[in-house]
Amino acid sequence: MNKIFALLFAIPKSLYVNFKCFDLSTACRLPIIVSHRVRVKGIKKGAIVLNATDINTGMIRLGMSDGAYGKGRNAKSDLTCSQNSRIIFEGAAHIANSFSINMCPNGELVLGKDFSSNYDLTISCSKHIEFGDDCLLGWHCTFIDGDGHPVFDELGNTLNEDKTIVVGNHVWIAAEVACLKGARIADDCVIGFGSIVSKEFKEKNCMLAGTPAKTIKEKINWKH
What we know:
By secondary structure, this protein is mainly beta. Helix content is 10%, strand content 33%. The longest helix is centred in the first third of the chain and has 19 residues, at 3-21.
């Protein structure tokens, strides 16, 4: 779709989201541009928080790009906020179309400065998922900090508690990667295509890959 038409079609939903979430002075700046293809549920004051020093028009774009190879073209996206959940933006963020962000009750999602995701991002946040600054995500990435259904022992004790996911600064997560509850990735790391991360990696400047992921190379770095 022509970018000008995409922006025009985005105006009604963008107005709705901004004036639902922010005070009048902030909302009038339209910091969030939301594609007309994004289905929004549960948006209200406090559901989205801007911690950015400078608040500019369009600094956050949701569903405004079709992503690599146009794979997200004409797809729908979903943004669902539940009771006491919140999404915190620390700065600019671009999330391509065909995303699904589901904020469960009391869940908290933090997106650092210059967050960028390709198409078909899936986030299900039951507890806390956090990205540092300058994170780049490929297509079909998934982040889930819970199991969706509780599992009990014979005494009724929960066996599968939700666990926080933390992604450090300047991390490149390639396509088809899944980060599950308890995943922690240090700064300046690269996660290889199709990997599954479900534990803590403390070392910086590492390349991780595999199912489950493991360190395959140290003392690396990357750039856009």
